[in-house]
Write a structure and sequence with these properties.
Distance between the termini: 35 Å
Strand content: under 5%
Shape: globular
Order of helices and strands: HHHHHHHHHHHHHHHHHH
Helix content: over 70%
Largest sheet: none
Length: 393
Amino acid sequence: MGDLNLYTSLAIAMLLALLSSKLMKKIKLPNVTGYLIIGLLAGPYCLKILSKDVIDQLSIIPDIALGFIAFSIGAEFKLSYLEQVGKAPVIIAFTEGFGATLAVDLILIALGNDVSFSIVLGSIAAATAPAATLMVVRQYKAKGPVTDMLLPVVAIDDAVAIIAFGLSVAIAKAINSTESVSLAATILDPVLEILGALLFGALLGVILKFLTKWFTGRGNRLSAAIAMILVCIGVSNMLGLSPLMACMAMSAIFVNLSSVSDKVFEQVDRFTPPVFMLFFFVSGADLNINILPSVGVIGLLYVIFRVVGKVAGAALGAKISNVEAVVKKYLGYTLIPQAGVAIGLTSVAMEVVPEYGTKIRTIVLCGTVIYELIGPVVTKLALKKAGEIQSVA
């Protein structure tokens, strides 16, 4: 079926994703899981309904979807809300992120793996994919202390992952290097990347505030928001900044400056379902399930100990911040999904530790397959156990 054109392929992708959501409802699993599985089955590595060329042509969709996801998560940073929750999300994001990194580092080094390989792979463990979690929260209209803590923690998590990766890469370079590499420069790179993204995003947030004040129609405001998200993604990619951080900063500034932000976010939320549906379908189609057997023991340890580190780290952070017991007990389990940022970091790893780059990428991609399939289900179960999903749709 290689002769399908792009439009037909898009239509097939959306119709299959819609049908999978009906099936998921029957077996009481999150829609996200259905989109991923149906994408995996229809993709070039299983039934080949959609070819690799088509999936490559659709690769623009994940970039756009991640921009929208970051934009909706940034809305959680409303100052009035942050004053209410306090420092807890920041503390928990750091403890769960570095908890995952340390857990993977320690087990790999303890079992005699190369130190620079272990710490670069371990640092990627910090990243959590916000998309699947956000979709589960939305689908089941989850409400309560775990959900309230989850969204800001996932938002800050990306910054933590980039910091952990930057520091680990700096150490790995120092260990591997024969000539003297400036440690300060290597540590400064990720810091500048984060600061640059935050400043650029903040600037766009101010511009969006004026645009939504100037244009008063609902359609016009939605168009302005979409245009700014696309500008944010495009320019961030050109400048080597994190588009996720920039889009998050843009909506965080916008939500605090604009009196019409609620209306704009409501419009954006109505626009995004097909984009998110396609994003998960394409992500599923892009998962090469054939690489699963090749990762062996190290891959298995990465998958298990990343979760151990996340759960223990989140519980520790919740204890330090003195938040509700229910947050301490269940929050870690909602942080399992891993995708975009982690895969992006493996590209950098291939340059930093080229001798291990392919191995790291394979392990992380396999982890992604496993986490993206079980993550949404575990998130749903954790939120249900925490009493935050009332009626299961």
